[in-house]
Specification:
mainly alpha, 5 helices
Length: about 110
């Protein structure tokens, strides 16, 4: 069974719950073959289910300042928590684009 099938199996019956959403984000992370291999090994352990990963995210959310009865967990924070939980490498930082110089051309000189 591949990692995507393993995640889908753990999501079954939990559609549109927080654990299901963690599974969807984990599928995205597992597009990286290195991460997929690590997660496939972990998902078979009772202590490493998507529900356990979701509890880590909830613990972070519970520790945050609330607005009314709500708290937001940004996707990048959820990914950080998921990666830490499964012992995955940190996502590669997006490289900053290189500055491009401006060239002024006198088109008249080409005539």
């Amino acid at each position: 069974m591949n990692v995507f099938d393993m995640i889908t199996a753990q999501q079954k019956g939990k559609e549109n719950t927080a654990a299901w959403t963690v599974g969807e984000q984990l599928k995205e992370i597992c597009r990286d073959p290195q991460c997929a291999e690590i997660v496939a090994q972990d998902l078979s352990k009772e202590s490493m289910t998507i529900e356990k990963a979701e509890k880590q995210i909830k613990a972070w959310a519970d520790a945050q300042k609330r607005t009314g009865n709500c708290v937001c967990v940004p996707p990048n924070k959820a990914e950080e928590i998921i990666r830490k939980f499964y012992g995955l490498p940190v996502a590669a930082e997006k490289s900053t684009p290189k500055k491009v110089g401006v060239i002024n051309l006198d088109l008249g000189s080409f005539l």
